[in-house]
Amino acid sequence: MKKRSIQNELSEERTVLSNERTLLSYIQTSLATFAFAFFLFKFADGTSNYSYIGALSIILGIIFITIGLIQYKRRKILIKKFRNHVIEIE
C-alpha cells in the first residue's frame, strides 16, 4: 500500500472547503434576497406592485437556500465516495 502524499490530502481538503464556500455563497445570496424583500415590504406600503416583487423575492430566497443545501449534500457524498475510492486503489 502506498503512502498518501501531502499534496493529495491538501487537494482533497481544498475540494471540501470549496464545497463549503459554495454553500455559504448560496446562503449569502438568499439572505440578500430576503433583505431586498423586507426593504420592499417596509417602503412599499402594501399598495403597489412592489409587495408582489417582495413576495417573489422571498420565494427566490427560499429556492436559493434549498438548491444550495441540496448541491452541498450531493457534492459531500461524491467527495466521500471519491476519498474511499482513492484509498482503496492505493
Can you lay out the helices and strands and say which pair or pack?
Elements: H1 6-44, H2 50-89
Helix pairs in contact: 1-2
Bulk shape = rod-shaped
Domain tally: 1
How big is the Rg?
A: 20 Å
Structure classification: mainly alpha
How many beta strands in the DSSP annotation?
0
Portion in helices: over 70%
The portion of residues forming beta strands comes to under 5%
- Spell the H/E element sequence: HH
Low-confidence stretches: none
Task: Describe it.
This protein is mainly α and 90 residues long. The protein has one domain (17-81). Helices cover 88% and strands 0% of the residues. Helix 1 (6-44) runs antiparallel to helix 2. The mean pLDDT is 86.
Q: Any key phrases for this structure?
A:
2 helices; rod-shaped; 88% helix; 90 residues; single chain; mainly alpha
Q: How do you describe this structure in short?
A:
The protein is mostly helical.
